[in-house]
Description:
four-stranded antiparallel sheet, binds magnesium ion, binds adenosine-5'-triphosphate, alpha/beta, 2 domains, Rossmann fold
Amino acid sequence: MGINFQNVDFKYAKKASHKQLDNVSLNIDEKDEFIAIVGHTGSGKSTLVQHMNALLFANSGNITIFDTKVVRNKKIKLKPIRKHVGLVFQFPEYQVFETTVLDDIMFGPKNFGKTTDLAKELAIKASQLVGLDEELLTRSPFTLSGGQMRKVAIAGALAIDPDILILDEPTVGLDPKGKIELMELLLAMQNKTHKSIIIISHDMNIVAKYTKRIMVMHSGKLVFDGSKEALFNNEALLKEYNLDLPTAAYLAKELKAMHLIDYDSLPLTKEELTHIILGDSCNE
Length: 284
Ligand SMILES: Nc1ncnc2c1ncn2[C@@H]1O[C@H](COP(=O)(O)OP(=O)(O)OP(=O)(O)O)[C@@H](O)[C@H]1O
Ligand SMILES: [Mg+2]
């Protein structure tokens, strides 16, 4: 099994009246999930994922991560949890700390018992996967740009090779080409290894194109958990939580209202919309 939450409550400050996680129950499979967590700023997305690899502990309710019951104040072994579930932070500068980029990416594999030689090999492979320039490997991570630093943090997580990989807003700070390359890398990795991948994102175009399942957070509550098709076809829910449609779906609705196109199921991506407009000729 992967990650299971049952009625999880959490507050950062004991005396606060508002819960940052409010009765959250969910189940995430250890294989083949591609989940997007969406919701407004401050809705609890980062707080939620920090419970998924035991960086934060629930005040009440149950969290089980790969058969380990995660409980606050109890001496549970966190290392196996972190090997199962890798988390790339929203702010990569909180995650890099070694003297050089290479040392930084090697830290995870070394920490999980790999020899220095193997850790170096894994780190170089991971840095190539994320498209990190080789000359950056000897630099201090603190001299890098935001996008480069994010790639270092992602490479560090990949080098550990967790079963479930969680990335908190991974495309922020990357240029348009870098965004697509990263998402294609994650997709290819999933096709090859069947790892479950969870991303937090505000970018509905990315969410619609790459993920399968969406969780919507609102004021600490998980208010929707289902397929992307179910979410983007649910106008009332989108309105209630003020969520955007992907651009292609928005355009498709406008064109349909103008009787310029027709479709049975709402296109969510540029490719699906193009297919509706051009029909089979777009494949020729
Ligand atoms: N370390 C902290 N101490 C106290 N409150 C916190 C802390 N971190 C987050 N919060 C509060 O918890 C709530 C949820 O924050 P969280 O960072 O999980 O939101 P988010 O959905 O990830 O937002 P964003 O889209 O801006 O990243 C917010 O009200 C925030 O102010
Ligand atoms: Mg956040």
